[in-house]
Design goal:
Strand content: 15-25%
CATH superfamily of the largest domain: CarD-like, C-terminal domain
Radius of gyration: 43 Å
Order of helices and strands: HEEEEEEHHHHH
Largest sheet: 6 strands, mixed
Helix content: 40-55%
Number of strands: 6
Number of domains: 2
Length: 226
């Protein structure tokens, strides 16, 4: 009986010690132990983002047309007149890759970009036959409508902005007064006349491959200014 009691006591003692050790281990993990020298266990966690793949932003490409013009070609853009293509490059506009013509305009020395998809706005320089027809238009009699000047001025402006060589010739023909009566023109008339005249002059100079003075002489002769 005594031996059994001793064994029971011993077993209880072992259980208590095991229980104490268990409790102490839990305290160590949570940092609740009274021992000041003890540092709680640090657990390193790898972020889930580490496993995620880096997303590469895809740039959309605009469907492009077949190029009509090439580098060094001279063209006419309605709003700016004669220009020369000095580069064909891809530009990112609004997150879309766009093939563009880079154009240097001869008169104001400005540089412009035009998507190849909008090349229908451009036209080549006038041919010899077109130049001859322009000369015959300039030699003709002015056709002035009997309407208010503000309305006529608007029509002339639209013709200039169209960039069409025959429309430009008609504006010059209708507003041309010759050397004698040039002073009698209003400021707005002179502005429109000079604008259309300069467009024709610049285009003819490059198309014919002659000097500014020779081109001016050719036009002024047709307009009976000399």
């Amino acid at each position: 009986m005594r031996i059994r009691k001793k064994r029971k006591k011993k077993a209880k003692k072992i259980k208590k010690e095991k229980l104490k050790k268990k409790i102490y281990r839990k305290k160590i993990k949570t940092g609740q132990t009274g021992n000041n020298n003890f540092e709680p266990e640090k657990v390193l966690r790898i972020s889930k983002n580490y496993d995620q793949k880096i997303e590469i932003e895809k740039i959309k490409k605009q469907a492009t047309e077949k190029k009509i013009f090439k580098i060094k070609d001279y063209i006419v853009y309605p709003k700016h007149g004669v220009g020369q293509i000095f580069s064909i490059d891809t530009k990112t506009i609004g997150g879309i890759e766009v093939n563009c013509y880079e154009i240097k305009f001869t008169k104001d020395k400005a540089v412009g970009l035009l998507p190849i998809n909008k090349q229908s706005h451009l036209r080549p320089l006038s041919s010899i036959n077109q130049i001859n027809k322009v000369i015959s238009i300039l030699k003709g009699k002015p056709k002035i409508k009997r309407t208010m000047w503000s309305r006529r001025a608007q029509e002339y402006e639209q013709k200039i902005v169209s960039g069409k060589i025959y429309d430009l010739a008609e504006v010059v023909r209708d507003l041309n007064k010759g050397n004698d009566n040039l002073v009698e023109q209003s400021y707005s008339e002179r502005q429109l006349l000079e604008k259309a005249y300069d467009r024709i002059l610049n285009e003819f100079q490059i198309a014919l491959g002659i000097s500014h003075e020779q081109t001016q002489k050719k036009l002024d002769k047709a307009l009976k200014r000399i």
